[in-house]
């Protein structure tokens, strides 16, 4: 029995679905309106005998794990890991556990659970401290204009300036110095508290479990303005988006902003669909989190001198995963969305208009090109446009934007295409190849987590997988669904056999992709990337 089978056997799909849908008995099955699309008559059915669900309207269907993954906007692997934890299956043989010794696996699992539990304790403690320190509570409720409901919703708290208050608390909880250093709550090689006299902003993973903190100064003379928890076994800032665990449930679109307080400001307008990076630029991992939600993406950057470069960098990242965001712009006179919400009692109504009128970001970028600029500036902007265009994997979208650029400037489309090809040759990058490269958005964690492979003789394999994953794992006829379940279901105790099985599936999927390529030169170039895995196997 695979780990997926074991999970499904322990779950009651009717009880699980009933948490989200008001099921009604209809014969031997249960029915109701489908939670995955809008409908007026029920076409969504759950079979307790078969332990599956099926919508005859939109086609959604599967087992309990699949339902939870779809309703919570998770990868299948993330849903599996959730139920592994909830059902207490950590000590059983799972696909990823087979790559570690028993001692390593137990230590890793215990450490992650301990860290998350510690963060939850600190969250609850800091929320109490916010109520006990008038100057901090005044800052939150008056200076930042945060209601008690918002404070509770985001679980905002306060870390006192006196470090002994925190140290007494963690000592009472039995936390060691090493535990606190790993958690980023103490500075290494000392008992110096990391966060002092700061508004504490908890950071959660996609499942809603606490994994760290962002902390903002209350006294404007303190520096830096924000401190973030250092990276830990739970927290990797390049793949975490603040508020993603709630924003992922939206059906209307994700708004990407620059900071925590901007996310909270949007929530003050009763919209919980904003996310922010945690002290880093937008990465490919962030982009994959956004695109797998299948909703519109909006970019909103502060009205300062640095916004344009940040916008262009972020745009290039998401275009590379075939995502075409919209650009939100605040009215003149507002530095950020927090200023906008604080100053306008009618902020929500105007916000709705701004979102409805937001243009496609790349179309907006094309529209900023001004034929009256001096030749050098025009050339620089065109080169920047070509750089953005070169990462787009869709040939049709690439052609559409080239055509739009030509039309806006009154130029020949063929001339623009020739300029674009010349740009690609000059930069030694081929847009013809880039159109066939899609970054897979749903790779099982087993293939991208080097920590599972970098154990002695596995370091070479880890390097190969890190290098190849972004360009090899492609979505071909949706075969990833079966492959993904198979990866998570494999139960082989021998690590070498386990690795061989993973690589075989990896190679098979990539070979399927190669057969879809029509250009022989591209197919030959892409085949080269497969050689290291074939040699290893």
What does this structure look like?
The protein has a five-stranded antiparallel beta sheet. It has a five-stranded mixed beta sheet with strand order 10-12-11-13-14. The chain contains 26 helices and 14 strands. 33% of the residues are buried. Helix 16 runs parallel beside helix 18 and helix 18 packs across helix 19. About 15% of the residues have low confidence. Helices cover 50% and strands 10% of the residues. Strand 3 and strand 4 form a beta hairpin. By secondary structure, the protein is of the alpha+beta class. The longest helix is centred in the first third of the chain and has 31 residues. It is globular and about 70 Å long.
List keywords for this structure.
alpha+beta, five-stranded mixed beta sheet, globular, 26 helices, 537 residues
The level of helicity is 40-55%
Average of per-residue pLDDT values: 77
- Give the low-pLDDT segments: 91-102, 429-495
**How many strand units?**
14
Largest beta sheet: strand ordering: 1-2-3-4-5
- The radius of gyration is 25 Å
Instruction: Tell me the fraction of residues in β-strands, as a range.
Output: 5-15%
Number of helices: 26
Largest sheet: 5 strands, antiparallel
Question: How far apart are the termini?
Answer: 26 Å
The structural class is alpha+beta
> Could you say which overall geometry the principal axes of the C-alpha atoms support?
globular
